[in-house]
Amino acid sequence: MKNLKKLILVGLAITVFASCGSKDKESASNDASTDKKNTSLVSDGVLDLGTSADFPPYEFYDDNNKIVGIDAEIAEAVGKKLGMEVKIQDMEFANIIASIESGKLDGGISGLSKTPEREKNVNFSDTYAKSVQKVLVKKDSGYKSPEDLKGKKIGTQLGTTGEAVSKDEYGEENVQSFNKNSDAVVALNSGKIDAVVLDEQTVKKFAEANEGLEVLEKSLADDEYAIALDKKNDKLLEEVNKAIKELKEDGTIDKIVNKYIESK
C-alpha cells in the first residue's frame, strides 16, 4: 500500500512539473513574440538613422541629453509603422550621406533636402516637411535684405542646402562653411562673418537665444525635407513612403510639427 501511495505521489509530481514546464515554455514564447522585430527590411530589425543634433526644432538635445525634435519624433513614428526599433546617431551633417553609402547607417533624417547630387548616392523618401532658407544677422548691422550682403562673408553648415544656396547667391569665395550651425552663430556674434544662412525655424531659434541677432524678412530659397535611405534597399524606401503617407493622412506628422512650431 505504501509503495502504491509513493507511486501516486511521484506521478502527481511529474504531472505538475510537466504542466509548469509547459506554461514556462508558453510564457517564454510569448515574451519572444513581444520582442520580435521586423527583419524583412534590415537584417537586425533596427533602423539606424544619422542626424546632426544642432538643428532645432528638427533635432536637438533636451535637458536629459536625449535627441528630440520634429525629425526624431517622425523617425519614431515611422519605425512604429514598420515594426522596427529606431536608433538615432548624432554626427556631423556632412558625414550622413557617406555613412549611408558605406553601410554604417540605414538612413538619415536631419532636415535633408532632395538634390540631384545627393540622389546619385542615396534614395530619398517622399517629403514630410517644407521650409525656406533665411538669413541671420546682427541687429545693428544695417542689413535689411539678403541682397545687401553681396560681397560679404556668409556662414553656413557644411554640406547643407543653405551652403549650396549661399554659394550660388554670394559666390563660393564669400562663403565659410562650419561643421555645426552653432559654430557659425558664434562666428557671427564675434564679427568673423556677416551673416548665417539656415532653415527658417532653426534661424528663429538662434535669434531667440541670442539677443543681438535678428532674421531678415525675405527668404533665400524654398526647401523640402525627406528621409535619406540606402540606395540598395528599394523595399525599405517603399515601406517608409507607405508609412509617411499614412502618418500624413492620420494627422500624426502635422501634430508633431505643430508641437515644435507655432502655427501662424
Automatic annotation (TrEMBL):
The chain positions of domain Solute-binding protein family 3/N-terminal read 46-264
Task: Tell me the SMART domains matching this sequence.
Answer: PBPb (SM00062), PBPe (SM00079)
PANTHER family reported for this sequence: ARGININE-BINDING EXTRACELLULAR PROTEIN ARTP (PTHR35936:SF17), MEMBRANE-BOUND LYTIC MUREIN TRANSGLYCOSYLASE F (PTHR35936)
Q: Which keywords does this chain's UniProt record carry?
A: Signal
Q: What is this protein called?
A: Amino acid ABC transporter substrate-binding protein
Which parts of the chain span the membrane according to its record?
none
List, alphabetically, the Pfam families matched. Answer: SBP_bac_3
Q: Where is the signal peptide?
A: 1-18
Among Gene3D superfamilies, the record links this protein to: Periplasmic binding protein-like II (3.40.190.10)
Q: Name one GO molecular function term.
A: ligand-gated monoatomic ion channel activity
Domain Ionotropic glutamate receptor C-terminal: where?
A: 46-263
Cellular component per GO, a single term: membrane
